[in-house]
Amino acid sequence: MTIKPINIQTIGEMPDGTLVKEFTLTNQNGMSLKVINLGGIITSVSTPDKNGVFQDIILGYSDSADYILGNPNYFGAIIGPYANRIAGGKFKINHQVYNLEVNDGENTLHGGNSGFHNQIWDVEILQNTVFQTLKLTYISPDGKGGFPGNLKVIVYYTLTNNDELQITYQATTDKTSIINLTQHAYFNLSGDFSKEILDHECQFNASSFIPIDKNAIPLGNVKSVENSAFDFRISKKIGEHINSEEEQIQVGKGYDHTMVMDGAGFRYFGEIFHTTSGRIMQIFSDQPGFQLYSGNHLESDIRCKTDEKLKKRTGFCIETQAFPDSPNQAEFPKFILNPNETYRTKTVFKFLINK
Fold this sequence. Notes:
Number of strands: 27
Distance between the termini: 27 Å
Structural class: mainly beta
Largest sheet: 9 strands, antiparallel
Shape: globular
Oligomer: single chain
Radius of gyration: 19 Å
Number of domains: 1
Order of helices and strands: EEEEEEEEEEEEEEEEEEEEHEEEEEEE
């Protein structure tokens, strides 16, 4: 089958005159994916519901050009060099302390203000591939944001005819550093961004999660989900315990925690199901876990795709990644990248319909 050409359009320009372009991928089923070169942001994923009606399920701005004005919620962006939080904005490698940009109180969140979400990526449309694929490349110079090393990052977005969004990450460096890459899309499988995501049913193969303090920094341990609001081993609605009096729910103002996945290697993580639309999103990854974020802090004057003010809990994130603050946590696995090594990880979101 001949692959349809990937559509490209210019949606605006950065203050320095760099053009911001949007790339639209479409598979043989009509599912589409839109990505811009600013932040590698996924601006849209359009999938059918059980009645065959296609709707966008990615929370964000109605006009893609608005991403140029800022993206404080990290809508759809590639996150790096280190996703999630680093306590105190510093870490140590081989007795050398590195001080990072702080942008979340005293902590560094998602790579700081100069993180990957704010950068222009080089985008190449790959030819001679089975499915439509974009190759995004960014080179982060030594010392940017406080991170050591010239870090070359490549991210592949592939849209398959099995209605899979495949995201593959790889990176190399010329100085030893830390790395933790993820994708920060907010999903709402209803396709209606005025509605909360509390009616979405979740089932995750996670027997434990990571407790956090009031600043969302890990307490340094992994805790069983048994008899807690974090037990999604049997499917339940995300809203079932989101307002409970449980301490960790109160600390996170809902879900904003790393779910530690069972097993190892590339594996099935679980799925999220929206009964009314019939949409199902399955998650596969080789990462140790994912950050489950229920959009607790989304409420603001920012206008989203409904042309209404952004409301909290109208999107959820599944940020597959390493454990937060792992460089400073004695018991957590370290994600250190050395010269002559290649960091690789893959995540797949597969979309299905329950009719």
